[in-house]
Amino acid sequence: MASEKLTDYELKRLENIRRNDEMMAALKLHSKATQLSNFKRQRVETKSYRVKSEKKPKTENPIVIRVRRSLRTRGIPPDCQGLDGDSVCPTTPPEEKPPCDVSLGPLSMANVRESDHSDSSFIESLMGMAQDDSVQKGKVVDSLDLESLSLDPENIARVTSGRITNVTFFPSSSVRMLAAGNKYGNIAFWNVGDNEVHLYHPHKAPISGILIQPHCFSKIYTSCYDGVLRLMDAEKEIFDLVFESDEKIYALSQPTNETSCLYLAEGSGGLSIWDNRVGKRSSHWDLHDSRINTIDFNCENPHIVATSSSDATACTWDLRYINDNNLTALRTFTHKRSVQSAYFSPSGGSLATTSLDNTIGIYSGVNYEDAAVISHFNQTGRWLSTFRAKWGWDDKYLFIGNMSRGVDVVSAVQRKIAMTLESPHISAIPCRFAINSYEVGMLVGATSGGQVYVWTSR
After folding, report:
1. What's the pLDDT tens digit per position in 204-235?
2. Do 425 and 156 touch, CB atoms closer than 8 A?
3. What average pLDDT does this structure show over 125-152?
4. Which position has the higher pLDDT, 270 or 26?
5. Distance between CA 199 and CA 189 in Å, rounded?
6. Residues in Cβ contact with 6 at an 8 Å cutoff, skipping those fewer than 6 apart
7. For residue 265, what are the β-bridge partners?
8. Pick from 241, 171, 166, 225: which is nearest to 448 by CA?
9. Residue 167 Cα distances to 44, 225, 326, angstroms
10. 246 by DSSP, 3-state: which?
11. N or C: which end of the chain has fewer CB within 10 A?
């Protein structure tokens, strides 16, 4: 009766099961499976135990594993204060050296010296230059033959580590010495062609200005993004603390007719005067809506000053006309993005601006109303100092770096790029420039890897 209730499919299935059991019994598979199961159980029950070795005592000097952690994971905001302007897509960063601690107050030159050799010869040379009457001669005004400019290997040196933010020549006809400051607060001195570089670390943030006193080379003012203004006094062999601001100092300048007053770009658009005669800040004006990047005085009329700012403007001011402790701009030059520099030409008759909107502006005329805009790619990225077009020895040419490791020579007369200085010896992008006013054709370009390239005229 039970079998009658099963379907044909179920009957067939039962028949297959029966035949499979008979086959497995014939092959003794059931007994072998049982033996295998018992064997596994015995292995589990008789497993061995490891004997733990004695714990080694801790060493007195434990090994410390240093793990690099990003600023974000440590809860620290990104370090953008060393940037010279708006940043774009970063390029490959150069090898840079981490900063060391620097104390406030007077610093002995010996204590902040980072070069291996003694600085006694360097100090003696500075004192000798200060006593040399030949350095007081007037500037050379010979015309420049661009084709005569050359870059020799002996005029190339890595004077410091990290990005150079400021470079200048000593105003001398007897020596070819330059000074360069980097983003870590180092100041390097190099007599072009020598094997020795004299390196000091008097600051702890990017150097924003270097002022060599024209009548006393042994006294050099340096400013820094940390708000500190120092005076390097080679006679006393110290970096003295002159002024400590609550704001960052972004630029430092001095008119040719005032040796006792220093002009500082402080904070978000402020311009201050530090008077050494009274030892305090004598004046302060809020001129721009954002930081001032450069301060430059007209050599023919030192009362006229030009400022460039990250608020996308450059302005000219007359320091003689102050109403209710306020200054009114004589003229405002507007760009679409941050203006990184505004420099007067050697005669004072023209003004050149450099902006992150990829333009160089050249303004001339009585009130600088004659304007010319020249296209130039100025997007250097985060790891390079921003480009700043620098006048040569006359009003004809400007020099500015390009992203192809060359130097573009801009003709202010033709209002276009006249030529590009190139050399197989250049391995990095020159960003910041300075000329030796006493030697036509001597031009230095500084890189973000701490190198300087010095062109000379054949």
Report:
1. 999 999 999 988 899 999 999 999 999 999 99
2. yes
3. 71
4. 270
5. 6
6. 14
7. 251, 271
8. 166
9. 78, 16, 32
10. coil
11. N
365-400 b/e (C-beta count within 10 Å ≥ 16 → b): eeebeeeeebebebbbbbbbbbbbbbbbbebbbbbb
Tokens of 360: 């160089």
If one compares 68 and 290, the residue with the highest pLDDT of the two is 290
The end-to-end CA distance of the chain, in Å, is: 122
Helix 29-45 vs helix 8-27: angle between axes, to the nearest 10 degrees?
70
126 three-class SS: helix
Higher pLDDT, 416 or 117: 416
* Beta strand spans in 347-386 (E): 350-355, 359-364, 370-375
Q: Round to whole Å and give the CA distance between 36 and 339.
A: 85
Task: Spell out the residues 6+ positions from residue 35 whose beta carbon is closer than 8 angstroms to its own.
Answer: none
Residue-wise DSSP of 259-283 = SSEEEEEETTTEEEEEETTTTEEEE
Residue 32 clears pLDDT 60, i.e. is over it: yes
440 residue type, one letter: V
* Rounded distance between C-alpha atoms, residue 364 and residue 307, angstroms: 16
The larger pLDDT score, comparing residue 107 to residue 41, is at: 107
The pLDDT > 90 percentage for the chain reads: 64
How far is residue 171's CA from residue 137's CA, in Å, rounded to a whole number? 10
Mean pLDDT over the full length of the chain: 85
Per-residue pLDDT, 131: 60
pLDDT of 437: 93
Question: What is the Cα–Cα distance from 391 to 378, expressed in whole angstroms?
Answer: 17
Closest CA to 436 of 152, 132, 167: 167
Q: How far is CA 267 from CA 72, 178, 382, in A?
A: 25, 28, 21
Rounded distance between C-alpha atoms, residue 310 and residue 317, angstroms: 17
Burial of 417 (0-12, 13-18, 19+ CB in 10 A): middle
